[in-house]
Design goal:
The chain is flat, with a radius of gyration of 35 Å. It contains 23 helices and ten strands. With 523 residues, the chain is mainly alpha-helical. The strands form four sheets. The chain has a three-stranded antiparallel beta sheet with strand order 3-4-5. A three-stranded antiparallel beta sheet has the order 8-9-10, with no helix packed on it.
Length: 523
């Protein structure tokens, strides 16, 4: 082979996969090896490359390293058969890395019997059976997995993972086919795994079926690297797009403190931070045109924002701005709070109105599935909130004594709800007979887990209607107040609502009962 140009870029050898500045498509050692030995299939790595006695140069180099680590001077058949992984190396590195201490290699004459000063043990030698990790962001391509050649079901980690998957399946009611599919996915991602290496969730989601169940097992074994971007971060980046960096940085810190809490800030409800930022985002975009930091915002700017709003929008926006600047003042970002001494004002609620018969009939016609009919009965008869409907468990139902416990309050079970519950439980048992989910409402996703269904799945059947589940819940409490009198104590005892909410419903009922137009309204 000829010389190497000074400006030639580094590449990987086509045969031994070493990395370095090569004279051609392969390194000098592989070039010599190719000229001396014919091509064939390697017994270890199964590649079609030049082989000597059935093994390629890459596998022979790995076997030689294992032999010298065991105190041998030459490679033998047992070490070749034991090759299960490959330690990659840089071009011409193995000559210095594996040389015998006390001897030196001089020119083409090879190792001569001249004594040299003792060499220090190589610090980059991997212990037997362990792979050294390079500081590179390399990803595994599981789409090239071949079960016949790559699978290693005898690996102790694979055996342990499959046992855990079987235990999870028995505890959560997985089907035989799901347990088998999860076990196959674990074999794919854990076979020939380097000790200490974790599996990335993004790699699972692209190739492995039922990657969520596989990720649960890997997380139980502390072998999962969850590299997914949280949905909150994606939403926050989208909402702060267009806001000047000086303002965006402080608003992001405030929103994260509301979402996750901090040293001097308690964690709020997840919907609070989102609602606050949505309400003040128009003001932030307007300030970004004129200002570079929150310190430049004055009291007049706050009043200009609030004066352009009316009712609850003004109140909610001012509350969010007070929270933002109070956090900025507490953390030393601003010197003065421009929202100080600006009154929020009382919360003016509109008068609650009952639903008419046509809207309720429309909602009843939209409930075409057993789950929708059950949610309709719980919301319209028992005034159950959507969250309480999703959290309802099988232990909360006593069909024999006709009792139902919702939000820690036990109430009698009427005939309509009893019939809807019986119909849904029969449907549930038919479709998911082995599920271990303790919640009453389940679907295809939650049947193999122990979490409640989401709000979207519960309310989807009533989207676009006048009588949604929330409106039915409100109408039921208002009807109770209209029927038994506007007594807040009665509403609190029956539905378990807060005193403030009970007073609001009682006031609405009192106003409806004393309005002449309502007295003569036809249903």
């Amino acid at each position: 082979m000829g010389g190497i140009r000074p400006d030639k870029a580094a590449a990987s050898c086509a045969e031994c996969l070493c990395w370095g500045v090569l004279p051609g498509t392969c390194c000098r050692s592989c070039y010599t090896f190719r000229n001396l030995h014919p091509s064939g299939r390697c017994n270890a790595c199964r590649r079609i490359v030049p082989v000597k006695d059935g093994y390629c140069r890459l596998c022979r180099t790995q076997a030689l390293a294992a032999a010298k680590a065991a105190g041998k001077t030459a490679v033998s058949e047992p070490f070749l058969r034991a090759v299960r992984y490959q330690q990659l190396f840089f071009a011409r590195m193995h000559r210095d890395h594996y040389r015998v201490p006390g001897r030196v290699r001089l020119g083409k004459a090879g190792t001569r019997g001249q004594r040299a000063r003792p060499l220090e043990p190589a610090t980059t030698t991997a212990p037997p059976g362990q792979q050294l990790c390079l500081p590179l962001d390399l990803r595994r391509d599981y789409s090239r997995f071949d079960r016949n050649t790559h699978a290693d079901p005898a690996d102790p980690i694979v055996i342990q993972a499959r046992c855990i998957a079987r235990d999870f399946g028995e505890a959560r009611g997985w089907s035989h086919w799901l347990i088998k599919a999860v076990g196959h996915g674990l074999v794919v991602v854990l076979s020939r795994r380097v000790p200490g290496e974790k599996v990335r969730y993004s790699e699972l989601a692209t190739i492995v079926r039922h990657h969520g169940r596989v990720a649960e097992v890997l997380n139980h074994l502390a072998l999962l690297d969850d590299d997914r971007v949280p949905a909150f971060d994606t939403w926050l980046d989208r909402k702060l797009d267009g806001v000047t960096p000086g303002i965006s940085r402080e608003v992001e810190n405030w929103t994260r403190a509301l979402q996750h809490g901090g040293r001097r800030t308690r964690r709020r409800d997840p919907h609070t931070g989102r609602a606050y930022l949505n309400s003040i985002r128009p003001a932030l975009l307007d300030w970004s045109i004129r200002y570079d930091h929150l310190r430049e915002v004055t009291r007049d700017d706050i009043l200009a924002v609030t004066d352009a709003l009316r009712g609850s929008r003004r109140r909610h926006t001012l509350i969010a701005l007070r929270s933002l600047f109070a956090f900025a003042k507490k953390t030393g970002v601003v010197f003065r709070n421009p929202t100080a001494r600006i009154p929020v004002g009382p919360n003016t609620y509109s008068v609650l109105q009952p639903l008419n018969r046509a809207a309720i009939t429309e909602a009843a016609n939209a409930a075409t599935t057993p789950a929708a009919r059950l949610t309709l009965a719980l919301a319209a008869i028992h005034a159950a909130r959507t969250t309480d409907i999703g959290r309802l468990k099988l232990d909360d139902i006593d069909l024999g004594n006709r009792k139902l416990t919702i939000a820690d309050r036990t109430r009698p079970l009427d005939d309509l709800t009893h019939r809807a519950l019986t119909e849904w439980l029969a449907y549930r048992h038919t479709h998911w007979p082995s599920t271990a989910n303790p919640h009453v409402l389940i679907n295809r996703v939650t049947a193999v887990r122990d979490i409640p269904v989401g709000r979207v799945w519960i309310t989807k059947a009533f989207w676009g209607l006048t009588a949604t589940l929330d409106r039915l819940h409100i109408d039921r409490q208002l009807e109770e107040s209209l029927t038994h009198g506007p007594d807040p104590l009665h509403l609190t005892a029956v539905f378990g609502i807060s005193p403030g909410t009970a007073i609001r419903y009682a006031a609405a009922a009192r106003q409806l009962l004393t309005t002449p137009a309502e007295l003569h309204q036809t249903p």
